[in-house]
Amino acid sequence: MPKKLDWIISGWALLAGILTFLIVLATTVNTAAFGADKIARMFGENVSGLSGYEDFVRLVISAAALMFFPYCQRQKGHVAVDLFAEQFSIQTQDVIESITLILTIIIALFLAYWMTLGMISAYEDFASSPILGWPNWPFYIPGVVSLLLWALVAAMQLSTKKGRQ
Amino acid sequence: MSGEIIGILGLVVLFALLALRIPVGLAMVLVGIGGNFALSLTLPYLRFEPYLFQFKSLLWNSVANYDLSVVPLFILMGYLASNANLSRDLFQGVNAFAGKYRGGVAMSAIGACAGFGAVCGSSLATASTMGRVALPELRRLHYAPGFATGVLAAGGTLGILIPPSVALVIYAIIVEASILEMFQAAIIPGLIAVLFFIIAIAVIVRIKPSLAPEAQPMAKEERRVAIRRLIPVVVIFGAIILGLGLGLFTPTPAAGIGVFLIFVYGLYLRRFGEGLSVAAIKDSILATAVTSGMIYFILFGAEVLKGFFTRAGLPEALASWAGASSLEPLGIIVIMLIALIILGCFMDSLSMILVVVPFLWPVLVEINGGDYATAATSAFAMNANELKIWFGILSLIVIELGLITPPVGLNVFIISALAGDVKMKDTFKGVLPFFAIEILRIGLILFFPVIALFVPRLLSG
Amino acid sequence: AEVTLTLHHFLSPKAPAHTQMLQPWAEKIAKDSNGRIEVKIFPSMALGGKPPELYQQVRDGVVDMVWTVPGYTPGVFPRIEVFELPTVHKGDAKVTNAAIQEIFPLIAEDFADVKPLLVHVHAGNALHTTSKKVTSLDDVKGMKIRTPSRSGGWMIEAWGADPVGMPLPDLSQSLSKGVVEGGLVPFEIFPPFKLADLTKYSLVGGDNERFGTATFLFAMNKDSYNRLPDDLKKVIDDNIGPTFSEEMGVVWNNVEKPGIGMQEKSGGEIVQLDAAAKGVFDEVGGKVVARWVEEVGDRGIDGQKLVEEARKAIAKHSN
Ligand code: NA
Ligand code: NA
After folding, report:
1. For chain A, what is the domain count?
2. Tell me, what does this protein do in biology (chain A) (predicted)?
3. Gap between the Cα atoms of B297 and A164, Å rounded
4. What stretch of H or E contains A123?
5. Which of B104, B327, B423, C212 is 20 to 30 A from B113, comparing alpha carbons?
6. pLDDT score at B110
7. What angle do CA C131, C134, C137 make, to 5 degrees?
8. What is the mean pLDDT of residues C264-292?
């Protein structure tokens, strides 16, 4: 895999990690506010939590979750059943792996295509989150980019495989 | 050709693709889309082209899910705890107490697996983390190799049941149960497992003393350090599990706070040259990316597959078949559990929950008397909500058994690989007594559902 | 059957919406078409996707019909929300359904991409509290309350209370653990969620008025409808409209009764606001309406007119 792509893919996953830490932060603040509220109640006061916290988590995780995909593909992290395939010859296993990579590319591009249409729909429909009122469509963008990167990683894996033979 | 036949053919193709080592998520998506195409040819009202339109929103909506956000959080929490060496502190700390008994280090490994299970969402991660920590110690003290690996492979299964657990989250989402109540229901069965495993170790080393060395209590100073380091770990892990158990937190906040506490403690440990370095944090994130990416893709695949199976009418057919059969309700559950054990030998736990449970669940609701059945009118003497919880605990224990049964016992693979020189066969042999005791536990929960239902009943008032 | 139509929704096949509304409707269609149309119902999101996707599914033709909640996709149906607002909806599903029928042309734009079969409401949200008896606006200040919808959240905020969002299955335990102190839901969901045992008081406005409601959309894909031969189109058209809407209003009013009975039987109290207190709540409800009018105004919609027409129609049908 070219160094540059490698760097982009890891960076993309780390970015998703940072988004996950944002969720952690929001959760901690919200829960702390909730705890503080319980205490404040004893003195007749009250502390409110982050309004729209759930919306925030939902939208941010929608981006982060798909941003994990390219790195997962890079590490061949998608779980498979090893039991039977071990009995196949090396050549057969090789062919199966190539087919798997080709199918992965097709599915990733297929999903990227439809998700782009979905983003346009979300934009045209004014679809938004219930409490925060943030529009949904921008959160499709990292997903579409992730799917394209996913296809790219699989394509690279396919070509390095071909190169080895 | 009827829809049901296409559905069954789809199931066959799915298993064939899996056997060819096509990744689970990919196989599900392919069969789901291909199956819908086949259906559109025979059942003209299921038009294929419009069907494809659902992919506009299906993927995004399957990840834009607040409840599911606990999955990457719990996974991150487990990796951070492991990279900050909290797993080691936990093991050494428990060992400070149990080390004075024969087989005590093995018991400590079980205790540490349970403790680590409380911050880690997955069995495999629990097995591999605790394997890395405890295996060298067990080998150094000359525990019999197969016994040592067997203990750890079995101990790893505790991760799936001791809350938090990714498997429980996903089961709860599939059957629309409360994640929190599932966690609470798992507490007593989880503790029973720990207790049974420890008793098993005590009995085994008594029958066959050659498996474990004489007790070698820790030196006083070493013991003091171990206990001192155990305290913060117990506080953090305890906060998470107590918060969940008492219903003070819902799962996402518990996971968020857990990550936060471990992160902060890990940074604090930097002052002593330990804890979380930048590289360790990076590693944790990347490992989280792999595991979470894998899980999210399987979840999406299951969604696509579900759309195919229901269009084909498969779950309906199964439910009406079971409803019409003359088997006792309990008999049907036992058959289901046996089927799950057998399937568990070949499939990973997540795919089992996602592929198989959606078939079993409607059948159970049907024989119980429907969603609105009350305890008084139902076949299992519990309402649909409690049935969900009880069956979830039972089926997850059974599915976790698949991790230690041949031929595909993933925990056994992992531990044997870690040990290097221990034959897989010996590990399977070492696991055997624990397997037997698990069957006993399943029987107990089967005949005394209250073991699972007690805590959620208590806490829901 | 000559034509098979798929109908997708998110509730269980045992829910009243399925057994008392969708199933009887499907049977009626089969009967009126002499078996030429079969409506195959897929409950519990069986055909895949999450509830917010139902609208897209019917619009794009993934399925032929859906029954869904417009509130699941905030922003997509800006106009119909008028009927969810506190002080607009009173407490009677039959009345509000009739009003929706009457001023439908004003909100039709929301449903321009589908063929709406029925737009209706449930009887309305009451405020169920675990231990605190609410008799005035002051009592409710600072309480943590599970919000039913977007405008419901605004209302809770306007009350000076904290709106908390959560999935319905979590409500029972959240109430029992004090995560929330109350929830705005109809009585309909009392039986499956044990709310009678968990809440002591259920607050309604005077004369059984509720604090806003939720709207529901039963809709058909346009192409699926247009493809039908004229006589079958007529079967569909004969089974929608004012009569169907009224029947369903009665059904949704009636599904409240078991829940109300359970609350009374459990020793719970149904509290009616007195006129003075109700006036204060209505004033705050008015602020929510104003906020909504302003918000839809940004989309170029005359919210004020919608509110006035909706109120007029509801008043007319109340008598
Ligand atoms: Na766990
Ligand atoms: Na009550």
Report:
1. 1
2. Part of the tripartite ATP-independent periplasmic (TRAP) transport system.
3. 29
4. helix A90-125
5. B423
6. 92
7. 140
8. 94
The CA distance from C82 to C98, in Å, is 14
Tens digits of per-residue pLDDT, B377-420? 777 878 888 898 999 999 989 988 888 887 767 788 778 877 87
Q: How far is the CA of C199 from the centre of ligand 2 (A)?
A: 5
B268 CB-side CA count, 13 A: 9
CA of C264 to the centre of ligand 2 (A): 7
pLDDT, greater one: C177 or B251: B251
Tracing tokens 């995780």 back to the chain, one arrives at A61
Number of residues assigned to chain B: 461
- The per-residue pLDDT for B380 is 81
Q: Tell me the ligand closest to B120's alpha carbon.
A: 1
Q: In what order do the strands lie in the sheet with C201-204?
A: C162-164, C144-146, C182-185, C126-129, C201-204, C269-272
Structure token pair of residue C190:
């009392």
Using a CB–CB cutoff of 8 Å, tell me whether B181 touches chain C: yes
Strand-pairing partners, residue C128, are C183, C202
| Tokens found for residue A116 | 């782009």
Q: With an 8 Å Cβ cutoff, is A82 touching chain B?
A: yes
Closest CA to B304 of A99, A107, C220: A107
| Contacts across the B-C interface (CB distance below 8 Å) | 98
For residue range B173-186, list pLDDT tens digits in order: 888 788 888 888 99
Helix (H, G, I), strand (E, B) or coil at C8: strand
In this complex, is the C-beta atom of B16 within 8 Å of any C-beta atom belonging to chain C?
no
Query: Could you give the 3-state DSSP secondary structure of residue C11?
Result: coil
ipTM of the complex: 0.89
Distance between Cα C197 and ligand 2 center (Å): 4
- Distance between CA C155 and CA C89 in Å, rounded? 14
Q: What is the residue range of A155's domain? A: 3-164
Antiparallel, parallel or unpaired: β C269-272 and C201-204: parallel
